Automatic annotation (TrEMBL):
This is MYB transcription factor. SMART domains: SANT. One of its GO terms (molecular function) is transcription cis-regulatory region binding. It is found in: Nucleus. GO terms for cellular component: nucleus. Residues 28-78 form the Myb-like domain.
Length: 143
């Protein structure tokens, strides 16, 4: 209720929603400020591959970071970094995997659709490649 009447009583020219978002994204104690670490960036890429653009759910895995902050770093930096590495930021698959259809290619597609474990292992391999480029060596060994 304080977000509804508080701004006007305090002499602010903000609506309640503006005050609530300002508190959630800037004023709340415990919010981390500054650059994201390599580990945080890696975690965002991993979680975005699994969860998609569900920024509030992703932010729960990064204590002290807001969903707005995570969305902004994804759109301003990480998505572009993946594209430069030749990885489609939407599918998290290499960009150069498309080949025109041929009979041998259709056979491969049918085999691929028959066993989803192949696509899981291909996705895992791709994620490992991305991880190796983004996270300093030895970091994952410590986990």
């Amino acid at each position: 209720m304080a977000f509804l009447t508080g701004p006007h009583k305090a002499g602010l020219k903000r609506c309640g929603k503006s005050c609530r978002l300002r508190w959630a994204n800037y004023l709340r104690p415990g919010i981390k400020r500054g650059e994201f670490s390599a580990e945080e960036e890696h975690k965002i890429i991993e979680l975005q591959a699994v969860l998609g653009n569900r920024w509030s759910i992703i932010s729960r895995h990064l204590p002290g970071r807001t969903d707005n902050e995570i969305k902004n770093i994804w759109n301003s930096r990480l998505k572009k970094r993946l594209a430069k590495m030749g990885i489609n930021p939407v599918t998290h698959m290499p960009n150069n995997t498309y080949k025109p259809r041929s009979k041998s290619n259709e056979l491969h597609l049918n085999q691929h659709q028959a066993g989803s474990s192949q696509s899981i292992s291909a996705s895992a391999q791709l994620l490992n490649k991305v991880t190796a480029k983004l996270v300093p060596s030895g970091f994952l060994d410590a986990l």
